[in-house]
Inverse folding.
């Protein structure tokens, strides 16, 4: 299993700084999460019901004809490779590593490449897996180009899988509204934009036959009642969503400007993080950690990902630390 | 996929009685659930962490040397058959049907029989799956007899799987404290005794090598943060647990007495339900449903399962309805 989470606790031990004194910029989770209300006791007590309206609300929010609630994108990432016989699978790199791991584990022939190389060569793949916008690189794709790639794959029973975990800030670029097309599979997550990473919940948008096969593989009750209760309200809260999008975009621009002022112009990013390639990424990561600021370090290529500082004080703290570190 | 849940909503439609006017005795979920506190916003926002103490608290509560938190027994039921090469599997019948379904689906040779037949013939199985106490039959087993069966199976790399979803009221009969033994796998659930069926959470008790293989199969984050937060407190609440056990046993005895007064002496049961074999089970189920009382109907053998009425008014309502129906 790949390692996830626990980074803040480990950093707290390694650098001798108590957890509560860190500025944690190591995730792509929105610091402006949807305000979760208290959950009624009955919701904890009763078995969840599939016909509680959650699927319909998700369908409306994602503009997707059909959706399946799942226990996070992770659950879908693990199950999708089990629904195909051995295939040639092209996967975006660098990117969220669980995709390649899951397809390899299920016995498929996996190639990881930059998206441009993958898309230039669709005839080589039975399945093409992209992350859009990519994490950590932030690459964007032209939806028309992706639909063209999908059409080529679908013509020979291939799949285009697009992990849109960071797409909520720019819904106009989502392919979810085209997912009635056979072989087009879009993964959405509520962890990042809604700031509900603790809920471990997501949705798969695809045509009904594939969703039914996936549902059969995952079994009943993939999401608990309290999560379903919270999601129904968050997905329906259009006013909050509009305001959150604007705030995230503005904060992400503010982060970009701050990084640029320190000579760290981002190589890529999106409304939820910015990403900087630096040959000295490791040293920079450590120097910031010594000052209680946790970033996400990537080895290949050497780079740092910065999540959004939650407020002015956090921006000032990052600004001050970068001044010290990069002087 | 087998059908689950939604029974109350369907009955409401079928009998033309609004959901809120039913006395729902169709589940084995405690009506005296653990009082769930409000969950802090930060728990919804942050990724769950494996080292939050939940496993240690479950280990103490179940007296099991090693435990793995899972998204309900259901998740373990589906994954365990994937960890063995094709085997001869004996499964208790009648019982929770997902066990047989999962083993068959994974390509094993499955035989379903009464527990007495299975246990009289352990040499025939590579894997023996029991439910203890059984649902709906309520059969109990002598722990020593089960440990003997396990020893025979384990000697040839076999497994004894015991689903103890209804065991919390009688912890002295649990095998969980013996699960350091190779090939002994005990499934526990927080849905019934703690009244947390909405959480979809459970624990697998087994030796570390098997738990690690299961963890690898299930992937990261099988439980969300809010569920982990609630469970840590419920599992540690010894005072509530003691009082709940007494109250459930007393209420279950009260239900047994009431049923017996109406000539419905239970064929079996446990602290969370009573089960009555009746050739006219279907007619009785319908007659009670017409009076807004939902029981769980089983076809093979024809029988009704009664969950615990939550209070005196519910007991009186059941008493009155049985008087009318059976006069």
């Amino acid at each position: 299993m790949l390692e996830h989470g626990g980074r803040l606790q480990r950093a707290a031990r390694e650098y001798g700084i108590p957890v509560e004194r860190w500025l944690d910029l190591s995730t792509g989770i929105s610091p402006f999460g949807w305000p979760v209300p208290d959950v009624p006791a009955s919701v904890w007590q009763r078995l969840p019901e599939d016909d509680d309206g959650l699927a319909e609300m998700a369908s409306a929010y994602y503009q997707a004809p059909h959706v399946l609630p799942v226990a996070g994108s992770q659950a879908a990432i693990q199950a999708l490779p089990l629904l195909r016989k051995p295939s040639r699978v092209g996967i975006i790199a660098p990117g969220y590593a669980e995709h390649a791991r899951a397809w390899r584990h299920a016995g498929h022939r996996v190639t990881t490449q930059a998206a441009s190389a993958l898309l230039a060569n669709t005839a080589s793949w039975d399945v093409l897996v992209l992350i859009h916008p990519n994490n950590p690189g932030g690459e964007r794709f032209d939806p028309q180009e992706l639909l063209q790639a999908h059409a080529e794959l679908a013509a020979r029973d291939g799949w285009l899988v697009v992990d849109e975990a960071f797409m909520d800030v720019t819904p106009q670029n989502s392919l979810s509204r085209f997912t009635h097309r056979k072989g087009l599979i879009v993964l959405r997550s509520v962890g990042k934009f809604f700031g509900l990473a603790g809920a471990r919940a997501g949705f798969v948008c695809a045509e009904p036959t594939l969703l039914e096969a996936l549902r059969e593989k995952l079994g009943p009750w993939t999401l608990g009642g309290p999560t379903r209760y919270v999601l129904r309200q968050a997905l329906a809260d259009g006013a909050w969503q509009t305001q959150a999008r604007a705030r995230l975009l503005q904060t992400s621009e503010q982060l970009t400007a701050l990084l640029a002022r320190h000579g760290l112009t981002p190589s890529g990013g999106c409304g939820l993080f910015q990403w900087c390639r630096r040959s000295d990424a490791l040293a920079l990561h450590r120097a910031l950690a010594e000052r209680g600021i946790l970033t996400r370090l990537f080895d290949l290529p050497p780079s740092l990902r910065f999540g959004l500082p939650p407020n002015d004080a956090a921006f000032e703290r990052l600004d001050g630390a970068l001044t010290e570190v990069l002087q």
